[in-house]
Specification:
The complex is a heterodimer of chains A (108) and B (351).
Chain A lengths: L1 E3 L6 E3 H12 L7 H29 L1 H45 L1
Antiparallel strand pairs in A: 1-2
Chain B lengths: L4 H19 L5 E6 L2 E3 L3 E9 L11 E5 L5 E3 L2 E4 L4 E7 L10 E10 L3 E12 L5 H7 L33 H24 L2 H30 L10 H21 L4 H29 L20 H38 L1
Parallel strand pairs in B: 2-9
Antiparallel strand pairs in B: 1-3, 3-7, 4-5, 4-8, 6-7, 8-9
Classes of the chains: A mainly alpha (108), B alpha+beta (351).
Chain lengths: 108, 351
């Protein structure tokens, strides 16, 4: 799904690939921030979509791994889930604050 | 620095719970035995697999019994230690059992001076062809179980189904307790808003409810992971799972409600009333309904509560601090949300 733009070596999705290359035909080498945001959002969505079935596969195939060492890895998974949850929450908070900062900047 | 002490305290307490909770070993236990069913009237060998056991240390002092619920016991004839984890225990079972049924579950009890006493509760079933209590009383040796040892180091209890996941008691349960504390705070600020009409109280209630919802969602996810490897499914439609999901949906509705108002005062008033009702539904949903019916969770109907068996004194040493630690971290996050909301208000006023 992910590919590299042959001009700037930046990662982009297939749908945006032609769009990006077309942009490079012009003189502007910088990539529009908006396009980058769309691309990164799509990349995150793709990664999540890929990662989800992968974890389920791992969980099914390697149940012995999760159950090894007296099921210690279940505790590891629980702690990892808490960590990830808090990180995702912090990212959302970070975005909210960035938006506020932008608003303050625009209003002077 | 003055305003930071409780945040530092929260981090230190959580660090303590992570270190203590992860590094303390489990007590010695019996993780497996085979065969699990024996027959009367013959000498039979059970291969016992220990957990965290050190059978080879002082192996001549190793003792084992098959024990009935009524206290009658049969001592092992021979114990051959293979290695630290495996021992072959030979029992000579008399021809009749001192019970009035053909099949009876016995508890396997192994005692070692190093590891202390460990049990496989009701794990070994013994079959007899005919019931004869008179003969059984004559034949049954009634061996005495005495001078059991206790492991001297600090350990957490060993439970066969749980294994190491007993440690999740410090990472899953305190999230709910902290959520309850924080949502209580949110409810108090909602009442305060209705009494004093202070918009900052409404913001505080919103911030605390937001964190409470985060802790609840984390609690439900960690619970699902734990359930998968204990009860077999991520979601067993257990009554407590369902009720907590409903409680979280109610609190989710609080934020949907807030988002659907244009007028700030109306929003604050309606959501404060909603929050009080949401909190009022939280207690029966989380603590009363699951206790009334059968549940997989401990402390519910048909399942023993957190007694000394589930939460012993060493576990309490980690469990209670974990509640305080998560509550403090929750307050910290709530404070950040509150400051963001105040800032947002200022921007809105200026814009």
């Amino acid at each position: 799904m992910l590919d590299r733009c042959n001009k700037c070596e930046k990662l982009c999705c297939e749908e945006n690939f032609t769009d990006l290359s077309a942009r490079h035909k012009g003189q502007d080498k910088r990539i529009n921030i908006k396009t980058m945001l769309v691309v990164s959002k799509k990349a995150i969505a793709t990664c999540t979509l890929l990662a989800l079935p992968l974890t389920f596969l791992l969980a099914q195939q390697e149940t012995d791994f999760m159950r090894s060492m007296g099921k210690m890895y279940v505790v590891v998974a629980v702690i990892a889930a808490i960590f990830l949850g808090i990180i995702i929450y912090l990212i959302r908070l970070d975005r909210k604050l960035t938006k506020l900062e932008d608003q303050i900047k625009n209003h002077g | 620095m003055k305003n930071y002490w409780w945040k530092i305290l929260g981090v230190l307490i959580l660090l303590y719970t992570f270190f203590m909770g992860l590094l303390t070993p489990l007590k010695t236990g019996i993780s497996d035995a085979s065969p699990l069913s024996l027959h009367v009237g013959q000498s039979q060998t059970v291969t016992v697999t220990g957990y965290n056991s050190f059978f080879t240390k002082e192996k001549e002092k190793l003792r084992a019994w098959l024990k009935l619920p009524n206290g009658k016991a049969l001592a092992a004839k021979r114990i051959d230690v293979v290695d630290d984890r495996v021992a072959k225990i030979t029992f000579e079972i008399p021809a009749y059992l001192p019970v009035d049924s053909k099949v009876k579950d016995f508890t396997l009890l192994v005692d070692s001076p190093v590891d202390g006493a460990s049990v496989l509760p009701g794990g070994i079933s013994v079959t007899q062809d005919t019931v004869n209590l008179a003969l059984a009383d004559a034949l049954w040796p009634n061996d005495e179980i005495s001078q059991l040892h206790e492991k001297q180091t600090i350990t957490f209890p060993f439970r066969n189904i749980l294994g190491e996941t007993i440690r999740n008691t410090y990472y899953h349960v305190p999230l709910w307790m902290a959520m309850f504390i924080i949502l209580t705070g949110g409810m108090v600020f909602s009442i305060k808003y209705l009494v004093k009409n202070d918009p900052d109280a409404d913001r505080k209630a919103m911030a605390l409810t937001n964190v409470g919802l985060l802790l609840g969602i984390l609690g439900i996810i960690t619970g699902a992971i734990w359930a998968k490897y204990t009860w077999g499914k991520y979601w067993s439609w257990d009554v407590k799972q369902n009720m907590t999901a409903i409680a979280l949906l109610i609190y989710g509705a609080y934020f949907v409600l807030r988002g659907s108002f244009e007028d700030a005062e109306k929003k604050a008033k309606v959501s404060a009333v909603f929050n009080i009702f949401a909190y009022a539904s939280l207690v029966p949903l989380l603590y009363i309904i699951p206790k009334l019916t059968d549940s997989l969770h401990p402390g519910a109907g048909g399942n023993i509560a957190f007694g000394s068996q589930d939460l012993d004194s060493t576990m309490r040493m980690v469990f209670y601090p974990a509640i305080i630690g998560w509550a403090l971290i929750g307050l910290w996050i709530g404070e950040i949300i509150l400051r963001t909301a105040r800032l947002q208000e200022k921007v809105m006023d200026a814009g």
